[in-house]
User: What shape does this take?
Amino acid sequence: MNSIGIRIEFSPAKWPENLKSARAGKLMVWNLGYSAASPDGRPSFDLASATHKGGQNLSRFDNKRFNEIYQRIRVIPHGPEREQLFFEGKRLLSVYVPYKYHIHRILTDLAWPWVIGYRRPPYWRDWWPYIDIDAGEQAKAISA
Assistant: This one.
């Protein structure tokens, strides 16, 4: 960066201090991971809503049209009009880029044939209470 005339000062800190600084608008760049936690897209729009500045909206993005879309999405039922608003909101986020998404996770699951009921739930992590073991199938596989 020196060779192209850009001065950078790095300030290493523990994660909680970085989060506090990000919420206060004191970080220019920070790298985080994010996963959708709901089948609805509205919580993902929290990241860019002006009502969430200082909270989920770490970029402190504030765009009048996006905020109107966000408020409208919160109150209308699922349907074509809401889908169109999501499309327009995503377009605005693609133009202004308050966040740069650059990694997409790929997950692979392996399960033994004797595990009953396992499937990866898309929106929660507590899946283990819903599985069981078929002891007969397990015994057959082990003895084979």
Summary: The helical segments are 15-23, 42-45, 64-75, 80-96, 135-143. The CA atoms of residues 117 and 130 lie 7 Å apart.
